[in-house]
Amino acid sequence: MRPSGRSVNEMRPISIETNVTKHAEGSCLIKVGDTHVLCTASLEARVPPFLKNTGLGWVTAEYGMLPRSTGSRMRREATTGKQGGRTVEIQRLIGRSLRAGVDRVALGERQITVDCDVIQADGGTRCASITGGWVALRLAVNQLMKAGDIISDPLVDPVAAVSCGIYAGQPVLDLDYPEDSEAGVDGNFVMTGTGKLIEVQMSAEGSTFTRDQMNALMDLADKGVGELVAAQNTAVGG
């Protein structure tokens, strides 16, 4: 039924390779099927002006797609002089999602910037960015703790995300591009490792959906996020 031959509740293969860059305090290359994202976390001993002298830390994110991450070459946004609306929306989502799993008091007055660069896109780039972004964040925080710069662990819960949708009339887990481009309903589910919801983005495209279908998508998301969190914990040695 699915173009990939997967069952309706089957994730694409998940791979997370850590410490893939030399300079970043935390880094990973996450692969969810044919979607590949490089995630790096950078520590800075400063916070935005609105947090100065508050004792609170900050986690933020930036997101971008490389020119040949898609079937035809895209122009770099730097050449147009501004980021597109989609890029801004996604990087704000990534930042919000990661902050939901952080005790900003325990982090202290410092900033961690998570950069998510899509090397290859095949659906679910924002979800892979959030999932890989948490791994990079975890590794950067580990460095802070090892150095004794913070006493208690500020990461209270893993954060991961997965897409689900109604494809060919059935709820399916982890949409790849052929499904995402034709799904009547699609959604992105951001959750913690303990199953709490951070954000749900759902919309109907040429179709509508029922409460029962929404619940079915939630159940699929629970399963998918559980598998992603297990992969995260394996990657960071948790």
UniProtKB/TrEMBL annotation:
GO terms for molecular function: 3'-5'-RNA exonuclease activity; tRNA binding; tRNA nucleotidyltransferase activity. Phosphate binds at residues 86, 124-126. Residues 10-140, 157-223 form the Exoribonuclease phosphorolytic domain. It comes from the Bacteria. GO terms for biological process: rRNA 3'-end processing; rRNA catabolic process; tRNA processing. Keywords: Nucleotidyltransferase, RNA-binding, rRNA processing, Transferase, tRNA processing, tRNA-binding. It catalyses: tRNA(n+1) + phosphate = tRNA(n) + a ribonucleoside 5'-diphosphate. SUPFAM superfamilies: Ribonuclease PH domain 2-like, Ribosomal protein S5 domain 2-like. Its EC number is 2.7.7.56. Pfam families: RNase_PH, RNase_PH_C. Signal peptide: none annotated. The keyword Membrane does not apply. Phosphorolytic 3'-5' exoribonuclease that plays an important role in tRNA 3'-end maturation. Removes nucleotide residues following the 3'-CCA terminus of tRNAs; can also add nucleotides to the ends of RNA molecules by using nucleoside diphosphates as substrates, but this may not be physiologically important. Probably plays a role in initiation of 16S rRNA degradation (leading to ribosome degradation) during starvation. NCBIfam families: RNasePH (TIGR01966). Homohexameric ring arranged as a trimer of dimers. Belongs to the RNase PH family. This is Ribonuclease PH.
